[in-house]
Amino acid sequence: MSEVQARQLGSGRRRLGVPWRTLRVLGVLAVGATLAVSAAGGASANPGTVREKAPAGCHAPAAGQPNNKQWTVEPALTIDANAGYTATLATTCGAVTIALDAARAPHTVNSFVFLANEQYYDHTKCHRITTEGIYVLQCGDPTATGTGGPGYRFHDENLADATYPAGTVAMANSGPDTNGSQFFLVYQDTQLPPNYTPFGRVTAGLDVLASIAAAGVKDGSADGAPAVDVVLDSVAAVRN
Fold first, then answer.
1. Cα separation, 160 vs 217, whole angstroms
2. Separation between Cα atoms, residue 106 and residue 199, nearest integer Å
């Protein structure tokens, strides 16, 4: 994997490290790539062939703009950690359904549910796709730059022996205990160190993620903005 593909996957300089150097908005350190949240733009990409054909089923985003609300502290814990919660991402390329793991990641699920109920994720663009080394779609930044967040941070959870097989949904970060709003969806088995809080799994829509990945990266590299714009028209999170 190239050095560019090894940048952080994070948010506001949160990283999902990958061996060579941290990836900006997710912040994950794994075989040749990183997932992190960055405070400023990402690394330049290698030139390549840009794929312009959008996946079947993609459509123009619904009218509206991210509200980009901000808070100074993590929301109070109001979910029931013993209950099940489901999130539905209505993307411009299809719906993705996620079973949220409140028992193992109560603060993370509580934050996600809070932000969804505040319509924080509505009209936000998924700003990153990686197609080599690690296989993730990164979303949750209302600025679509990899630097945005809700204004608060909260601690890591569920990291003991954490793995990231296809279908995993986990938090991007810029280091320990720097979680905010950015998250990533794993569309193909991915090797990452246990540094990113897993808080759910995709139960429907993995084919949607695979189709977005198959369209490639906008600049033809293996790590950058998706070739086709992927917008979260709405995100709903409900107790089962």
1. 32
2. 8
Q: Please, which residues have CB within 8 angstroms of residue 41's CB and are 6 or more apart in sequence?
A: 145, 146, 147
- In whole angstroms, give the CA distance from residue 63 to residue 212: 21
In whole angstroms, what separates CA 44 from the centre of its chain? Answer: 20
Q: Is 41:197 a contact under the CB 8 Å cutoff?
A: no
- Amino acid at the residue 172: A
Sign of CA dihedral 229, 91, 82, 149: positive
Q: How many CB atoms lie within 10 A of CB 82?
A: 8
Judge residue 52's burial from the number of C-beta atoms within 10 Å of its C-beta, 0-12 exposed, 13-18 middle, 19 or more buried: exposed
Provide the β-strand partners of residue 137: 129, 185
Asked whether 78 and 110 are in contact (CB, 8 A), the reply is yes
Q: What is the pLDDT of residues 9-26, one digit of tens each?
A: 565 544 443 332 334 445
Q: What is the pLDDT of residues 78-108, one digit of tens each?
A: 999 999 999 999 999 999 999 999 999 999 9
